[in-house]
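Wed. Picked up where I left off yesterday with Helix-turn-helix transcriptional regulator. The coffee machine is broken again, so keeping this brief.
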Amino acid sequence: MNNLSKNIKYLRNLKKLSQEALAEELGVHRSRITSHEANRTEPNVEMILGLSDFFKVPVDILLRHDLSKSNGTAFIELGNQRVLFPIMVDSDNENLIEIVPIKASAGYLAGYDDPEYIEQLQKIKLPFLPTGKHRAFPIKGDSMLPMKDGSFVIGRFIEDRSDIKTGRTYVLVTLNEGMVYKRVMNNIEYNGSLLLMSDNKTYNDYSIPIDEVLELWEFTCSINTQEYSVEELKISSILGLFNELGIELKALENHLK
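Structure written out below (tokens, as returned):
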């Protein structure tokens, strides 16, 4: 129960509540809060459930994780509960970027909100990135040329869906489509969906309800893991790429009119 005692004090301070104010919210005497925070007595089941409901933090996170090692922005709202969203830092308190490996990308769908899964991912530091929480995702296939299969997209976590910008690219973790990297058109206000578009126009566009989007990561930069061939670097190939993008941008412009 050592984590729980720390968490009670941490969450109470996060809400800027005195021990007496928290006790009143939970309908108990202040001495119980003092005793639990000092780890002199263990809360009973009823008290643990009360703390979970009040702070909107799942019981297993209250018991198993030291939340004092996180910060106030390390939570995301899911339904009526807040789930720990770990922000990993190094010894200099600088954010680290978790790398979702290619072979384990399918497992990310099951572990994206599990702190223990995230903690075991390999990490890198890129000091030139802007502020915000970033994560690196592997790219599969050729739907987002010139991004090569096996490259990594580093994205910034987007919590507020109103921040989604039409025409920008995002890594989306979705309920039914898995993890995808696409260019996005924001149609939330119009019909509650996002239009996902591939830069390789041999792939069809499709819409997905915003309610099926579990996570959104806006493109910040990419890491190529393969060298471009001489053929790919020829002027004719580059001009062809710009022509394709020109077609796409014209289509996007027509959508916006």
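Quick read: Residues 235-256 form the longest helix (22 residues).
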